[in-house]
């Protein structure tokens, strides 16, 4: 059983490696993909500052379907190309949106979400889904978050087979 403590620092260069180490500890002791994805979402939600949602949408029959998450209830299905998640999935590239209210076609799940980062989950050139993270703060996500969260997505795909 893992015991998670508050992050040792808010500095991204300390915080993100700590998050990756904590995730590895969780993943190395469990093989179930749903349990690991749930713990990955909870780890991000618990340890990153200023979030109100972190979780997965998984590609099923050409649409994104809600997977394990941390936060308030969310939209359960998103069409490819729709909203931030569907756009990131369709483009197969990370999207950082400083103000979701300015994003054409934004899907409002939580009225408190103001910024968002979505990282496509791609394994062996196959789109698996996306890692979606929302914040109530405007312009919460920066390039450094993208860099580290893309590494976390690779770690997740290394241990979790959806």
Automatic annotation (TrEMBL):
Pfam families the UniProt entry points to: GAF
Naturally occurring in which organism (per UniProt): Fusibacter tunisiensis
Domain GAF, first and last residues per copy: 51-156
Family: Belongs to the free Met sulfoxide reductase family.
Xref: SUPFAM superfamilies: GAF domain-like
Protein's name according to its UniProt entry: GAF domain-containing protein
Domain of life: Bacteria
